[in-house]
Design goal:
With 215 residues, this protein is mostly helical.
Length: 215
């Protein structure tokens, strides 16, 4: 019995980390898509979703480390479904009759209604970039095992960040913002996400490792 309990404790701890990382991954993705409606100026033009979205790359790595490649793919799909649910809910809410006692509340639909294009851009970019991130991470683990874990984050993100930034920005903002602004957003996204990835890589050492056959 003692041997079972000693084995169960690490598994329970790993599952707790998996739930935390997966929940934060989905939540951060949703928050970023709402914030992306607004473009801000931080030296370069950037969509406000860049304030939180860079965390998703490292959070995906934490999901992968604690749950394995299959679980990482599942969480990516769940995040995409949650974003579709968000956009659909906003679309329905914006078209329901407004309470006359409160007023027309047109601002809700005019601002948040544009999230459909944001969500479409996010779905394409996130699906392709995060799956690419998953494969690079997996290949790194196959080659290095538990050694040089920081490289998992930096190598996988070096591929997924530029891919995500270009796909998302072009799909979401091309034809809406001037081309110079779109270019600035791409550059700013790569810089900000890359910096966030570099600062966040120590998080990979905080979570327990899944069985190597699932990595």
């Amino acid at each position: 019995m003692a041997a079972v309990s000693e084995h169960a404790e690490p598994v329970e701890r790993r599952m707790e980390w998996l739930v935390v990382a997966a929940t934060l991954y989905v939540a951060t993705s949703l928050i970023a898509n709402v914030l992306s409606v607004r473009a801000v100026k931080l030296g370069l033009a950037v969509d406000a979703g860049t304030l939180t979205y860079p965390l998703t790359f490292t959070l995906r790595d934490l999901v992968h480390k604690t749950g394995g490649r299959r679980m990482a793919r599942v969480v990516i799909v769940v995040a995409l479904a949650a974003n579709l649910l968000l956009a659909g809910s906003i679309w329905v809410a914006a078209r329901l009759p407004a309470d006359p006692g409160v007023g027309p509340q047109r601002e809700f639909g005019s601002v948040l209604g544009s999230t459909w294009r944001i969500v479409a851009a996010s779905i394409v970019a996130q699906l392709l970039a995060e799956l690419a991130d998953t494969e690079v991470y997996h290949r790194y683990v196959v080659r290095f095992g538990t050694r040089r874990q920081f490289g998992r984050v930096l190598a996988s993100n070096a591929v997924s960040i530029p891919l995500d930034s270009v796909l998302f920005t072009v799909i979401a903002f091309a034809g809406v913002f001037p081309s110079s602004t779109v270019t600035q957003i791409i550059v700013a996204n790569v810089v900000v996400k890359g910096l966030a990835s570099f600062l966040a890589w120590p998080m990979i050492y905080a979570v327990p490792e899944v069985d190597s056959t699932l990595a």
